[in-house]
Amino acid sequence: MFEIIAHPEKNRVCVTLRGHLDPAERKAAAKAFLAAVNQLGPGFDIIHDLSELRPTDAEGLKDLIRVQAAAKIKGVRSVIRIAKTPLTRVQFERIAEETGWAFETAGSLEEAHARLDALGPAPGPEEPQTP
């Protein structure tokens, strides 16, 4: 199960992954994530809630690496991850090392939002120039 919600007013996307994602669900989640990110501007933030995600297989790791690489290209500013299962946490730490994607950890969704709010507004899409 996944849930991906864009918050354009905060230039933030919240990604929640739960259970075991099969290949079709991973692809749907990746597509939904990229659609959400396309609503945001460079310098967007991600809250990544993995607190109920079960570890994935090697193919799942490859899918996750591709999604993280796409987020990096699109200009992610900060990532805060919530991961409570040790093996899931380790898998995502390894992916971050491979992609060069730095992240912080938080104990809850509320804590993650509070940290990003404390950083101040993420840069949003540039305002159109008027003559």
Describe this structure in words.
- This protein has 131 residues and is of the alpha/beta class.
- The protein has one domain (2-119): Transcription Regulator spoIIAA, CATH 3.30.750.24.
- It is built from four helices and five strands.
- The protein has helices at 23-37, 58-74, 86-99, 109-119, and strands at residues 2-7, 12-19, 45-53, 78-82, 104-105.
- Strands 1-2-3-4-5 form a five-stranded mixed beta sheet, with helices on both faces.
- Helix 3 (86-99) links the parallel strand 4 and strand 5 (104-105).
- Helix 1 packs parallel to helix 2 (58-74).
- The longest helix has 17 residues, at 58-74.
- The chain is globular.
Question: Which features would summarize this protein structure in a list?
Answer:
5 strands; 44% helix; alpha/beta; five-stranded mixed sheet
